[in-house]
Amino acid sequence: MNDLLIAGGIGVAFGCALECAGLGDPPKLAGQFYLRDFTVLKVMLSAMLTATLGVFWGARLGMLDLGALYVPETYLLPQGVGGLVFGVGFVLSGLCPGTSCVALASGRIEGAATILGLFAGVLTVGLAFPAIEPFYRSTPHGPLTLQSLTGLPYGVVVAIVTVVGVSTLAWIAKREAGR
Amino acid sequence: MKLARRLGIGALALGLVAPFAGSPLRTQQRGLDLDSIARAIDEGSDHVSARQLAQWIRDRRPGLRVIDVRSSDAFREDAIPTAENLPIDQLAKSSFAPGQTIVLYSQEGAHAGQAWVMLRALGVTHAVFVPGGLADWRDEVLHPLLPADASPAERALIADLSRYFGGSPRIEGSQGGAGTASTAHGLRRRGC
Fold it and tell me: Less CB within 10 Å around the terminal CB: N or C of chain B?
């Protein structure tokens, strides 16, 4: 029960942050795909930087046990296909699952339509699961991380991700200031 | 914009210091590597005899760390010289430097063997245990039975090691109180 309350609190805070960033607005999200609006990239990059640095330094200072973190397993081909389907839905509706809830909460009808489509998709996959299960479990690679993939020390990966993230954000800021 | 720039510089600083901050992992690897454990048991690289340990201690082997996993009460009563007491429930909270040779022992050896597996689970691969524990230390090092058929050099080696630690070797075949002649030494050195 306590976990549910904490999860609910984090969810509401996450929704607030998305709304503050303007991600409840479908044209804004779709604008990312046409490279007109970089809000999505900015939100994603700043979230990745916060998480990367937060997890590394939290663990380094003994506040977090890295062993307790769950790293999802990679199934290359099915996840690639899933990502494409997800991307098509994303650009068509201008919303992702999280932002569709935000859009609905702020009174946008597109949000309700996207949530409906989301659950229709979940139901379809659930019903078809026995048929697609072999594909779902194909090309397994276990939990992949950048460290295990590159063989670099954790700290070096953190530095590279930070430099790439911050310089991309700086580039976006410069581009937006130039307009 | 000013806040965003400050945040960016802060993130950059934290990120660039990260490679020099050391590993955030408490141990290199959590979870049991069953293959390497099976290999170590098969090869016998998981344990060391009490006599070998005694030679290591006498020769001041660099990086040697002898750990007694029994309770602190038992440790105070009797222990192998140079050993430090680290009861089994405190093992997981301790840190072990990579360059060391960690030797675990307990009263009879079972607990030390279990502690060895615990250290493996914590990613510590440079540990061994004494299978016979403190009992072996007494029988093999402090009061070893000098075999009657062994060469004089061999017997001298065992006897020397025993006397180094204040023990008294027994001579095989001697009647009644084993090694009555050597008990006269009566030295009981603890530590060096």
Answer: N
